Amino acid sequence: MSIRKVLFALGEYYHLYNRGNSKQKIFHNRGDYERFVTLLYTCNSENNFKMFVIENGIEKDPYLWDRGETLVSIGAYCLMPNHFHLLIKENKEGGISKFMQKLSTAYVMYYNQKYERTGSLFEGKFKSEHLNTDQYLKYIFSYIHLNPIKLFQKDWREMGIRNKAEAIKYLNRYVYSSYLDYIGIKRKQNSILSREAYPEYFPSIEDFQKEIFEWIKLDY
């Protein structure tokens, strides 16, 4: 039995990530991405929910559920075709482990049923890094939100971005991360985030965009 190298502590911040077995895709289409994003909201609770609830003949929007106390505070997230990144703060003892267990179990059950498969989907236990300095924590906001640029230009970190304006446009269109929430786009996914639980590194939309733009303009 493997022992986790990083032990989670109440009130601390962590970068969590995992990918598909043998780097296989874990998100194939819009439905897969949207299911996982919705689970980020619904699994963040001591309560258990059914994904589809009918009230008065109408399917209830999961984002309108009363979750009660949350297990974790999510500061940022990004989904990529074969992996995901989360920025997490533990709200209660054991909260991260319980949240991630609920999240991964719910998504694997959905995925295996949809694609008529069995067995594990992810590459072992999720990985974690303790964000124990202000500099590291602030950096992770940019690191997570810049991930989709690899889909626009795979070698951008090594070679620099060839078309910076188009890279920004690509980020502005990428809906499977919390980037849009930080640039002021109003959508129901806003409720996934608990921004008040994090230091106010970006008091305004302009401050956040400036930080992202600075990373994009760096020469590697």
From TrEMBL:
Domain Transposase IS200-like positions: 9-147
Pfam family, one: Y1_Tnp
One of the protein's GO biological processes: DNA transposition
InterPro entries (alphabetical): Transposase_17 (IPR002686), Transposase_17_sf (IPR036515)
An MF annotation (GO) of this entry: DNA binding
SUPFAM superfamilies named in the record: Transposase IS200-like
PANTHER family: TRANSPOSASE IS200-LIKE DOMAIN-CONTAINING PROTEIN (PTHR34322:SF2), TRANSPOSASE, Y1_TNP DOMAIN-CONTAINING (PTHR34322)
Protein name from the UniProt record: Transposase IS200-like domain-containing protein
